[in-house]
Design goal:
globular, mainly alpha, 11 helices, 57% helix
Length: 287
């Protein structure tokens, strides 16, 4: 044995730990960590089938039109958590209410869901005209849900399951329809943030990535004129580096991308649960 072999082995293991993060590899029976810049061609091809960039994919047994399970809030950053994910950070304020909305097992708590949307709107609005266009519509729908949560029927609007059961009973599905529209917008936001987060360093075409996400999630539900307006708005979309600087100020690009991926993972978890609940109740075609 060479005298430095143990030292070299330790260094190799440490590098592997940094690349793989805190989750077990697929060879250990778990998920492999999706780290930007560390995909082999075969891995990239396999992940492309998931439809949302570098995310964990568990396609078997999912409800139709679900997006694959992502890293979510458990993803470990390589370094100390950046301020943007803290209690006062833009990304942290957007992520925490959405995460709290998943606390009821198998349900979505509406007060936390709309609180998460409020913070997501606050985060997205300064990022460009396309987000201003989208968040204006989202604000109207959030206000509509909040009005029901303050109405005499507020007891029936505590969670998604309670709301849909009540509205089925009364024959009025306006709250469920409003939530469905927010649900579609959430998917676009999640796909956009995920694709920017896992893009190439210095990639100038973040607008293309988010435009592709728009065509997947929202364009099929928009009239032609709205689609054309959105297409023009994407032309003014900031490049990836600038986008990450705005999302996570004062943070290295790699860490900002990891922080953005963490938020996208939380949105993905909320989307998937909401998708399952709406599909089980045959409410995906209300609007």
């Amino acid at each position: 044995m060479y005298p430095d072999q143990d030292k070299v082995l330790q260094e190799v293991q440490e590098q592997e730990r940094l690349v793989r993060g805190s989750r077990p590899s697929s060879s250990d029976g778990g998920y492999a960590v999706a780290v930007p810049g560390f995909f082999t061609p075969a891995q990239s091809k396999a992940l492309s089938d998931c439809g949302s960039g570098a995310q964990f994919c568990t396609p078997k047994g999912q409800v139709p039109f679900q997006i694959p399970q992502g890293l979510g809030p458990l993803e470990a950053l390589e370094h100390e958590e950046p301020p943007c994910l803290g209690p006062q950070g833009m990304l942290g304020r957007a992520m925490r209410p959405f995460l709290a909305s998943l606390k009821p097992p198998g349900d979505v708590e509406l007060s936390q869901y709309v609180a998460g949307w409020r913070e997501l709107i606050r985060f997205l609005t300064p990022l460009g005209s396309i987000f201003t266009f989208a968040t204006r519509e989202a604000s109207t729908k959030v206000e509509a849900l909040e009005s029901r949560m303050r109405s005499p029927d507020a007891a029936h609007y505590t969670s998604l399951a309670a709301m849909t059961a009540w509205e089925r009973q009364t024959g009025l599905l306006s709250g469920s329809r409003t939530l469905l529209l927010l649900h579609r917008a959430l998917r676009w936001s999640q796909l956009c943030l995920s694709r920017v987060a896992t893009g190439t360093r210095g990639d100038p075409v973040a607008g293309v990535q988010c435009s592709d996400a728009y065509r997947t999630a929202l364009a099929p539900h928009h009239p032609w004129l709205v689609q054309q307006a959105a297409r023009l708005a994407f032309l003014a979309f900031p490049g990836r580096t600038r986008f990450l600087e705005m999302a996570c100020p004062g943070t290295r690009e790699t860490d900002a991308g990891a922080a953005l991926a963490r938020v996208a993972g939380t949105l993905e978890d909320v989307y998937n649960r909401t998708q399952s609940l709406l599909a089980e109740r045959d409410l995906l075609d209300l609007a």
